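User: Could you walk me through two proteins back to back? I'd like the raw sequence and the structure tokens for each, with a short line separating them so I can tell where one ends and the next begins.

Assistant: Of course. Protein one, sequence then structure:
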Amino acid sequence: MNLLTRIFTWWNGATLNTMIYTKRYGEEVGRDEFGNIYYRKPGIDPALGFERRWVIYAGVSEGSMTPPGWYGWLHHTTDVPPTQEDYKPRSWQLPHLPNMTGTPEAWRPSGSILAANARPPATGDYEAWTPEA
């Protein structure tokens, strides 16, 4: 990746400062199926009062690319990372779908001016308000 991109953008993986901090203090905990790498700084951070944990995304930094097990570990819901336990997603936890907002594949409800089909006709149950003089 281009050095200038690393210095001036945060959405294309880790910034240069994050990479230096990770190299200096980070301890790799594991990786997920998307190639994201999870780190922790051993010990209690005096500013936070708990252990510091973070992720370096493979590619564009998007929070929805964090699987449920790793999400729980990052947010201190669990103390044990998924690599150290036999984590199985629950039946209601769906696999990752990327955020399609702003793309041609974005969800467009019926009635949207961007939807492929025509807008449904007015139903006649609307009565316009007019001020009384």
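----
Protein two, same layout:
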Amino acid sequence: MNDTPTTGPTANDQPVATPPTEGRRAPFREMVTDAIRYWEPRRLIYNAALAAIVIGYFIAGLPQSRSTLSLNSILLLFLLAVLANVCYCGAYIADVFAQFSGFRAFWLRWRWLLLTLGIAFASVITRFFALGFFGSY
């Protein structure tokens, strides 16, 4: 059996990316695939955290917060949710850039810090928007 890491089909024909060997830079496609594989499942956590903040402030402001709901306010919330997800995509730029560097192995172990800081930053911004929508409590 050959011990050389490869990228190729598995038994169920799904491609498998393996980490590069020392001294070899991973191909761009592999880095992007690794970034997608890491960040997309965590987008659910990001969106859940932001939704929990908005829902929490809505519930805390009941019954007055119910009067703020209109078609325009719901569309604005939708627009803000889309913009928050566009901002989340900024993590891809940082991730792929760091993977291109000589610190790839270090970055792959510690990129969860970017996720944590990103969620914290977005949560603070979301809190201020929720306060603006549903009043300061």
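The beta strands are 8-9, 15-16.

Let me know if you want the two compared in more detail.
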